[in-house]
Design goal:
The structure is a single chain. The protein has helices at residues 26-31, 66-69, 71-83, 91-98, 150-156, 163-174, 226-240, 257-265; strands spanning 2-4, 9-15, 36-37, 43-44, 49-54, 57-62, 86-90, 105-109, 136-141, 180-186, 194-203, 207-217, 246-248. It is an alpha+beta fold. It folds into 2 domains: 2-109, Alpha-Beta Plaits; 136-248, 3-Layer(aba) Sandwich (Aminopeptidase). The strands form 3 sheets. Strands 1-8-5-6-2-7 form a 6-stranded antiparallel beta sheet. Strands 9-10-11-12-13 form a 5-stranded mixed beta sheet.
Length: 283
């Protein structure tokens, strides 16, 4: 048993229409995003984000201080609730709705943290409304026109400064390794407003899989669903080639919260830590 405080924020596992949210383990999987390894090398939930069961309904209890300490994660949790039409209220408000005592009350704790961390794919009852999309086309960017992808990719990769070096690296090195580029072009534009760079590779860890190296939409063209269109096309290509896995690396900064939400919506899960060792050579 555990204790919920009156001011704790509850993401209740029911929609605004009163239906129970699925999948059944959504709360554990959502909290798993903030889980970490304890001294026994076992995953444990964050002390401020816990899955709980209230009247046989799975919920997520959030300590309000999370909004100050980790605003990007708090925003992600709130966006998840909004995307899936889940009720969000304080524990005091929940008790008031149920006519219960507004003091701290024991609540059943959900099962222990899972062995792997993943997030449920959002499953809204009704397809979300999409913004009206300007007329555009999605097509592959051929080697002779690699330069047109520079503007978009330089937003994602600030280290890119020289377009000639960029074209040379893509065409003479990366394309030789199977790298391909997709672009979304709005009517009247010669350069893509959104770009995806990917490759099919094989290794001992994942076998034959598709890896997304780059995915970006120019800031002024965001919220038109272009990232979603590119991911959908990538999934179509993988399916066409009988590729069972698609991989993508993404930074953990707060500015990437929106991108992470799109990945989760397309069935991606957090699968591993990505370690980097920077060598400090003495000159």
């Amino acid at each position: 048993m555990t204790i919920c405080e009156p001011d704790e924020i509850i993401i209740h596992g029911t929609t605004s229409k009163g239906k129970v949210f699925r999948p059944s383990d959504w709360a554990e999987r959502l909290c798993g995003i903030l889980s970490s390894f304890n001294k026994d090398n076992r995953l444990s939930y964050h002390e401020w984000v816990q899955p709980v069961v209230m009247d046989k309904i799975r919920c997520v209890a959030i300590v309000p201080k999370l909004q100050e300490i980790n605003p990007s994660m708090f925003r992600f949790l709130m966006d998840f609730a909004a995307d899936n039409d889940l009720c969000v209220l304080t524990y005091r408000e929940l008790l008031a709705e149920q006519g219960a005592n507004a003091e701290s009350v024991e609540v059943n704790t959900v099962i222990a943290a899972p062995e792997t961390v993943s997030c449920p794919e959002p499953m809204p009852e009704q397809p979300p409304e999409t913004l009206e999309e300007p007329e555009s086309i999605l097509r592959e960017i051929a080697p002779h026109e690699t330069a047109i992808a520079f503007a978009a990719l330089s937003v994602l990769r600030p280290k890119l400064k020289d377009i000639n070096s960029f074209v040379e690296q893509i065409n003479k090195v990366q394309r030789m390794q199977g790298y391909r580029l997709l672009g979304v072009f709005e009517r009247g534009t010669s350069n893509p407003v959104a770009v995806c760079g990917f490759r099919v590779e094989t290794n001992l860890v994942s076998g034959n899989h598709l890896h997304i190296d780059d995915l970006v939409t120019l800031p002024q063209y965001r919220k038109h669903g272009y990232g979603t269109r590119l991911l959908t096309e990538i999934q179509r290509i993988a399916s066409e080639q009988n590729i069972e896995e698609i991989h993508i690396d993404s930074s953990v900064g707060g500015e990437r919260t929106t991108a992470h939400r799109i990945y989760f919506q397309h069935g991606f899960e957090i699968h591993a830590y990505h370690f980097v060792c920077k060598m400090d050579y003495q000159k």
